[in-house]
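anyone seen this seq b4? input:
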Amino acid sequence: MNSQKPKTITHTIAFYNLENLFDIYNDATKYDDDFLPRSERRWTKKRYDRKIYKLGQVISKIGFENTQKPPSIVGLAEVENKNVLRDLIESEDLESFSYDFVHYDSQDERGIDVALIYDKSAFKVLNSKTYSVYLEDDIGDQDYTRDILLVSGILHSEKVHCIVNHWPSRREGEKESNHKRLKAAQKVIEIIDEIKSVESDAKILVMGDFNDNPGNDSIKFLTQQASLYNPMETLLSYNRGTLNHNFKWNLFDQILFSTNFFETEKNALRFDEADIFDEKFLTQYKGKFKGQPFRTFVGRKYKGGYSDHFPVYVQLNITEL
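predicted toks r here
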């Protein structure tokens, strides 16, 4: 007779837009002129090191209350290259954990990419690839944006597929750019179809800065067409979100997943909870922007904060006999 009690283990899966994590070195293939020591922003080694330290500190705390460890997987947006990722996982609060990363250079016009960092003791990468989103500008030339990253691997004991996104911005206006985000949503649907053609009951996590809220066309289209659940729908309110624009909260940062994460059998990863990581230390303490994300820059003015976005996360439980 087995007298052992079932043991429940929790894994945190997070997503974080790091707000222009550029190194201090000029790269002719990137649009990084604003992030150099002699630029108007004066992006010095001291400022860069401070940002790396702060971001590592944030990541180490996401979901920690429930798990007593940093996240198993973190999708990232706005990273320049592998060097900044290496510095991040070797930063003071992360270096004692066995983090590694997956990153590919994209043709994004700003020179920023998505990436994934992961705890090698919890997640084993099996394969990864990127997908580009084909867009055109007003005169029919190709308009480059961030690639979508797919990383498949074993989390704990189950295969999962992580799709990391940073969809086209609203720079030219929400309505004017809506079709670009719908194109990105269509590409994610194609990726999911490709996964399911090989693995019909695949467990899939779709995370990113979608530059749209849960109720917008692109997210609704994605959740419906790909049969995903969006636990972030209920988190957006007049006084809560992941970024604030003109004193209005948005929740562009989201993690969606396939509905088989609701399964309850033993030794299967199942959804437990979702939240915004908006602890007070990440916010502006005073003034008219009190409570908003404490940013690194406002325009070209250096503030020394973390990011203009809060991270989001989901927690998955697995019960072992």
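Residues 174-198 form the longest helix (25 residues). The chain has a mean pLDDT of 94. kinda curious what u guys think
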